[in-house]
Each structure stands twice: as C-alpha cells, then as structure tokens.
Amino acid sequence: MILRVGRPGSADPRALAEQAADGTSFRELSRQVNVGTPRIPLREAIPISEYIHGTFVPLSNLPHGWEMHSAVALTPAEDRTTVREPAQAVPDSIAARIGKLRVLVVPWVACMDTGDEVRFTKPEGETHSAVWIETGERIHLVLPCKELDPHDTGLEFLASIAELLRPRLAAEEMGRFSRLLEMELRAGIAGEIDEDARAAKQPLLARRARRKRSPELFANYCDTSFVSTAAEYMHGLWHDVQIRIGPEHLPVPQLRRRMTLLAEMFPPNAGYSLFAEGLEKGE
User: Fold this and answer.
1) Which of 56, 143, 215, 279 could pair covalently with 69 via S-S, beta carbons 3.0-4.6 A apart?
2) Final residue in a domain of this structure, among 141, 168, 195
3) What phi-psi label fits residue 273: left (phi over 0), alpha (psi between -120 and 50 degrees) or beta?
4) How far is CA 135 from the centre of its chain?
C-alpha cells in the first residue's frame, strides 16, 4: 500500500523538468524498460508500485545501513543537503525502528486517479512531496526534488521519517507525549509546532470552552503533533533552527519540554546537540 507523507505539492508542481535516472531498469511485463541519467527516459511516467522494483545502479550508502539512488543529477552540495546530512542527523534509535530503507530521489511524483506515478517531465496536476511503499524487504521512500530547494527536500525526508516512526511507537511512549499535550491544553496554549498540528489542535480548543473533548479528535491531534514535533526535533539536530515567536507558534518553554522528551526517548547521536546555547539557557 502506498502511504503519503507531507503536504501534497501545489497544483502547479515543479518546474524545469530535467531528465531522469541513470543505470536504472524496470520490468514491464516480460521486457525491461531502461531509464537513464541524465538522458531523457524511454518512459515519461512510471507507476510508483512498478518504479520501486527497478534495479538501481548506482546505489549509494547512507548512515544506518540505508540506501539512496537519485534519478536526478545532483551536485555534491545538493546530494549532502537533500538526504545525506539529514539522514546522518536521524538518531540511531529512530533508524532502528524504521529498519531497512531505500531513498529514491526522483523529479516529480504525480497524483493520479489510477495511482501515483514517478514523472520525468513536469506534471500538469497535483503532486506529492513524498510517498513510500513498505514491503517485507524494506521501505521504499520516493522523494521528489524538482522545484524544491535542497534544504526543503531534506525537511520532507525528515517528515517522512517522523511519519514512519509514529506507528512504531510503543503505547507508553505515545502516552508520555500525549500527557505533555494534555498539560499544554489545560494551560490554554494555542500555538503549535507547525500548521498541520495547529489545524488539528483548533477543534480541541473550541471544545475546551464547552468542557467537551472528542477522543477521536484528540487522538488525531496527538498523532499529528507527534509527527510534526519529531520532524522538528531531527531538523534541530541537523542544524541550528531559528525559533519562531508569536501566538500561532509553540512558546519556548513548551517547545523545550517537547524536545527534551524526544531526546530522552530517542537520544541524539554522538556529536549532535539538542539545543542551541540560547535555548539551553532558557532565553
């Protein structure tokens, strides 16, 4: 089953179509279809469910025993920022939960009624920011990169890892995070870590005034907020992140508590620190 993570791309997806995947082949019925990098591919659209079964050459190694193949020619700087450095920042304990992972960087992923497709030229309709398929062998994470800054592609990669982590949490782990959210709701904290979590929180704030709470709404909020918080936790391990201030954002004390909890659950790797100096001092 294909799972989607992150936000769908805009209705006018990524520009400047560049060519496709080098040394990659895909079986279509009884024949092989070759896709080349950086040459124009023989097929402009390949279903995700078919694409992941290709023979990818070259396959480069990532931290945690993960693998990566790019169907887009990346500069060394783009290669580092798109996947390699974000993957290195993922705590080992999170990577162990995810298991075997193959990251397939592609130009675009188009949303189609018949199923999502890898596209090597710019689609006209809606696109996805990341999709994946879990098989018995590994997770295949397909990561589009066209019309995105490499840093933003790296953030989508971390958001995907956070989304994959959520169903792999033990009940007591999610319970610890849920209790933290309960404290924030009782304190009337309206801000959140990002737009997705803030949207999931709003119905609970409205119901708070009526002293009612839907268990389904709260569970959805917990899931959404955990994924957003875990992604931001790994983002902060990757590099220093500027703290956003304002009523729509999570206040610094609550942000610190969340990050501290995640660091207890999934400690940073050696050489990585949780907070910048100012946040450590509570500034």
Assistant:
1) 56
2) 168
3) beta
4) 18
